[in-house]
Design brief:
Elements (H helix, E strand, L loop, with lengths): L8 H11 L13 E7 L1 E2 L11 E2 L12 H19 L4 E8 L7 H14 L2 E11 L8 H8 L3 E7 L3 H6 L6 H14 L2 E8 L6 H12 L5 E6 L7 H4 L7 H17 L3 E4 L2 E3 L6 H7 L3 E6 L3 E6 L2 E7 L3 H9 L4 E6 L2 H12 L6 E2 H8 L4 H12 L3 E4 L7 E4 L1 H5 L1 H6 L3
Parallel strand pairs: 1-4, 1-11, 2-3, 4-5, 5-6, 6-7, 7-8
Antiparallel strand pairs: 8-10, 9-10, 12-13, 13-14, 15-17, 16-17
């Protein structure tokens, strides 16, 4: 068992000097704090993926195991040097994402969670999610993750069609996807499936089939993403033939209809859940809560009474490990400017079907309501937002159906 660490008095004093100084923003009580941990390796880079993920290849191109022990040492060092920034706060949710976290052994995930717990208080009942890819684990591994302290599994299924999985360059096939979901459903009370739609050559009937297969498992949560061509990916260099805009809009309508009929509510642009199974970690992002980002390329957002700080960790895994082990995991730490703060809040909060209480804007950004009054009026006048004055915590605004359909236009009003 690790001894609980206390940051050195000098480190706490330095944080106080830099970040607790007076300023023009007036934030409310500190928002809920989450921890995001990035595990950056994959068996193979998918042609559509622009995440900070790296193929595990040794000299000569052969697959090699991830350097788990050294990376865990680096994560612990990263956390230790971040402690002064979050001192005295407890963690509501943990999300271990990637890359492919399920390449790490359950013992490694156990060590990671025990390191986090020994350094920061984890709230009782905290949600702890791990991303897992089909085809990267042997049987019984999911149960072992659960034993390690993971409470929620998020499986990157993408599609149940062998044909589409091949087109997406995935390392798994339909049988492995089915096996992964079956095992997740047995081992976890709550889990998520990631599916993508508007895939190369996909027809409406094929999408229906994918979704029906997913729904047959009665998943508590689904994340349904429109496949996008991201710059600097193999797909951007050699684009596959994708369904046109009208077809993909029809596909989305169909997804919303079929998920609703199965009891899953679309509570965010891409997230659908049964009652009681929304993802607390992602909700904290969308409600502009705080998160500490640990690991290669991880981003963080941390609030102080008069400022909001953005942090970024070294992106390349080898460099990250070297720097983190030397106590310098962060490659960037910047205060968010007033205008960026208002826009970032809106960019996140407008993704939520239920919108947000206007008081939350001031609470989380430290800005007065007047900072968004003009674009808010414009959005209401154009029918992109609706206002509800009767809520217990004061007025709320939510995107209308039209606002949700034209979300980027709505968000752009707040730029
Ligand atoms: C952080 S990623 C990685 C999860 C896991 N490594 C995997 O690929 O199964 C989370 C999800 O983002 C989605 N995603 C990744 N790239 C995408 C793209 N270009 N367009 C749409 N969705 C994407 C996929 O559904 C993926 O499961
Ligand atoms: S497995 Fe996931 S993170 Fe890794 S390359 Fe593929 S999409 Fe990206």
């Amino acid at each position: 068992m690790n001894a609980p660490a206390t940051p050195a008095a000098a480190d706490l004093a330095s944080v106080a000097d830099r970040f607790l100084r007076p300023g023009t923003l007036q934030l409310g009580a500190p928002p809920p704090l989450s921890v995001y941990v990035h595990l950056p390796w994959c068996l193979k880079k998918c042609p559509y993926c622009d995440f900070n993920s790296h193929e595990l290849r040794g000299p000569g191109g052969a697959g090699v195991p991830a350097p788990e022990a050294r990376y865990l040492d680096a994560l612990r060092a990263d956390l230790e040097s971040s402690l002064p920034l979050v001192w005295g706060r407890s963690v509501q949710t943990v999300f271990i994402g990637g890359g492919t976290p399920s390449l790490f052994a359950p013992e490694s995930i156990e060590r990671l969670l025990s390191d986090i717990r020994s350094l920061l208080p984890l709230a009782p009942g905290a949600e702890v999610t791990l991303e897992a890819n089909p085809g990267t684990f042997e049987r019984e591994r999911f149960r072992a993750y659960r034993g390690a302290g993971v409470t929620r599994l998020s499986i990157g299924v993408q599609s149940f069609s062998d044909d589409k999985l091949r087109a997406l360059g995935r390392v798994h096939d339909r049988a492995q996807a089915l096996a992964a979901v079956e095992e997740a459903a047995q081992a976890f009370d709550t889990f998520n499936l990631d599916l993508m739609y508007a895939l190369p050559g996909q027809t409406a009937a094929e999408l229906d089939e994918d979704l029906a297969t997913a729904l047959a498992f009665a998943p508590p949560h689904l994340s349904l993403y429109h496949l996008t061509l991201e710059p600097n990916t193999a797909f951007a260099r050699r684009p596959p033939v994708l369904p046109d805009e009208d077809t993909s809009a029809e596909m989305l309508d169909r997804l919303v209809e079929l998920t609703a009929a199965a009891g899953l509510q679309r509570y965010e642009v891409s997230a659908y859940a049964r009652p009681g199974h929304r993802c607390a970690h992602n909700l904290n992002y969308w409600q502009f809560g705080d998160y500490l980002g640990l690991g290669a390329g991880a981003h963080g957002k941390l609030s102080f009474p008069h400022r909001v700080l953005r942090t970024v960790k070294w992106r390349e895994p080898a460099r990250y490990m070297d720097e983190a082990l030397a106590g310098r995991a962060a490659s960037q730490q910047d205060e968010v400017g007033r205008q960026a703060l208002a826009f970032e809040f809106m960019l996140n909060a407008l993704r939520l079907r239920d919108g947000f209480e206007l008081a939350l804007f001031t609470d989380r950004t430290g800005l007065p309501p007047s900072a968004i009054a003009a674009p808010l009026e414009q959005a209401l006048a154009r029918g992109l937002l609706a206002r509800d004055d009767g809520g217990p915590a004061g007025p709320r605004v939510r995107p209308t159906a039209r606002g949700f359909d034209f979300l980027s236009d709505l968000q752009a009003l707040f730029l």
